[in-house]
Amino acid sequence: MTDYDVLRVFCAPNGGYGNELGVVRDGSVLPEPERRQELAAKLGFSETVFVDDPERGVVDIYTPTLRLPFAGHPCVGTAWLLDVPELVTRAGVVGARLDGEFSWIEARPEWAPPRTLRQYAAVAEVDDLAVPPKGEWVYAWAWEDEAAGRVRARAFPGRDDGIDEDEATGAAALLLTGRLGRALNITQGVGSQILTAPQPEGWVEIGGRVRLER
To answer: FRET partner for 146 with CA separation of 20 to 30 A, picked from 53, 165, 182, 184?
Structure first.
């Protein structure tokens, strides 16, 4: 069996929740995209990262069914694990930094895969949502405190890969921040926390707590 680490990314202040992530530190053991896709499907995480160069931060990202040019929570988690100043993804170079308990990356909204950002009038409406039909990737959100930039969100990938809801989704937070043009403090899923901040020239920072599970 290929060795891999399991992280939880975008954890709550108490260290709980967060979205699980698989990271294969030695990507050379599975160089072929087809075999990487097979392992990602077998592991069943919302994303699995293969590290092709740990010093330069070159990474390759897969869902159970797709290869992605960029994804938020995999980049936040892998940057924390490797402790590198940047990651090289197929979409572009992602800046990375550690600030106390938070791991941050800097990316561009146009790198994120398409998402339907669906706003609701109240937090209770988001909390009460059932999983929508397959086919559309939906990021459901509502203001918890608009003046403070606090958002309640849930994410529904709409894929046939066994993942009905993502506990924490950096790429969708990136898109929402790009649309709203302001810093956000997002509570997603059961209790995960995602922080974002717009940067000059269209960049956005995404930050969160990362924990090593095993």
So the answer is: 165
Task: Please state the φ and ψ torsions of residue 133, each to the nearest 5 degrees.
Answer: -60, 155
C-alpha 167/C-alpha 118 separation (Å) is 17
Q: What angle separates helix 170-180 from helix 72-82, to the nearest 10 degrees?
A: 110
- Domain range for 184: 111-207
In this structure, what token pair is assigned to residue 116? 């339907």
- Residues 6 or more apart from 85 whose CB is under 8 A from it? 57, 95, 96, 97
Checking if the pLDDT of 163 tops 90, the result is: no
What are the DSSP E strand ranges found in 173-214? 184-188, 192-198, 204-212
Average the pLDDT over each of 47-51, 75-79, 159-163, 165-169 and give the range with the smallest value: 159-163
Interior CA angle at 71 toward 166 and 111, to 5°? 125
Does any domain span residue 212?
no
Q: pTM of this prediction? A: 0.94
> Are 65 and 120 part of one and the same domain?
no
213 in any annotated domain:
no
Hey, is 85 helix, strand or coil? Answer: coil
CA distances from 125 to 116, 122, 147, 152, 155 (A): 17, 5, 20, 10, 14
Of 34, 67, 98, the residue at which a domain comes to its end is 98
> End of a domain among 74, 98, 122?
98
C-alpha dist (Å) from residue 112 to 116, 139, 143, 185, 213? 12, 13, 22, 19, 26
Do 188 and 160 lie in a common domain? yes
Q: How many domains does the chain have?
A: 2
